[in-house]
């Protein structure tokens, strides 16, 4: 789509006779130019307001944000014609916070089939999505060739785009913890380019742990305070400059660091199979975090065994729609069976000492009588009979209780 450039009226008329008709046309074009300028200004104002709404509480801001996006869409529809834009030329926003769309896309596809497209998607002038990725994905899944679209100006900096996309997604539909955590880390690294991504959640946890040791607190409502007050609190708590910068970034997004540390950033530690299940199978992040405890190191099993156990857990959670409490109970049961199996496999020290003595015994160097050797042979044979019975019973017991064979 061509950019709406400012008209250079004076240059346009530089070589035209100054007739009354020309003057009239000049005034008409000037009025159109002023209208266009007002439209563009209003459009940018709306986009800015969408971001500023995040500074209010979530429940209060969500309806207002939806109204602002609706107003922006109506403004764009009135200021330009609705385009039938080729679906294969639309680019998803690479900084889109939401990576999980499965359920919403299925629901939207059904709506598109029954009701048709009610609202156009909003694109930047290069075809990148600003709003309406769910509609675009649904239309694509239905095999549509085009989709109704309107256009708006793209922010100059990618970090501005990431922030706007985050705020829009957060208010319209809650992000899952994994998508939210990865986006917040990316926003922090946009603001502090030299900061490694893995260091962001570590800083939050480190500061909160330090404050807890000192019996200090950020306060439950710090994320709702004015920016100046947030600065004052962090200075009083003697937070280091880089730590303070990270905290202020999240507080500016009205995110409380303690809540992020407790509820959001742990999702970054999910295994790759659980992250895939969250995004591709709609596994809840809370359930995924519980299944994440089934690790090879904790259960003292191989990575392959742990992966199979987590896959089994994913199937159970999705098939039975387990709550977090039910998922936790299921994990406890699995872990208890592994612990029982592991405990039963603990080596007896007395047997190990006896085994070591036998292995070290060199009968070729002893000066034993025939009678002694016969007694030793009979004793060992008797013990072997007892040992064989014990071993057979143990193998039968293990085969019957090994839950991995179920």
Explain what this protein looks like in three dimensions.
This protein is mainly alpha-helical and 406 residues long. The chain has three domains: 22-163, Conserved hypothetical protein from pyrococcus furiosus pfu- 392566-001, ParB domain; 196-267, no CATH class; 272-344, no CATH class. It contains 18 helices and four strands. The protein has helices at 9-12, 20-52, 58-79, 102-115, 133-141, 158-172, 177-191, 199-213, 227-236, 241-252, 257-264, 272-280, 285-291, 296-299, 303-320, 324-344, 349-360, 370-401, and strands at 83-86, 121-124, 129-131, 146-152. The protein has a four-stranded mixed β-sheet, sandwiched between helices. Helix 6 packs antiparallel against helix 7 (177-191). The model is unreliable at 1-20, 54-61 and 398-406 (pLDDT under 50).
SSE layout and pairing:
Elements: H1 9-12, H2 20-52, H3 58-79, E1 83-86, H4 102-115, E2 121-124, E3 129-131, H5 133-141, E4 146-152, H6 158-172, H7 177-191, H8 199-213, H9 227-236, H10 241-252, H11 257-264, H12 272-280, H13 285-291, H14 296-299, H15 303-320, H16 324-344, H17 349-360, H18 370-401
Parallel strand pairs: 2-4
Antiparallel strand pairs: 1-4, 2-3
Question: What brief labels describe this structure?
Answer:
Conserved hypothetical protein from pyrococcus furiosus pfu- 392566-001, ParB domain; 4% strand; 406 residues; single chain; four-stranded mixed beta sheet; mainly alpha; disordered C terminus; coiled coil; elongated
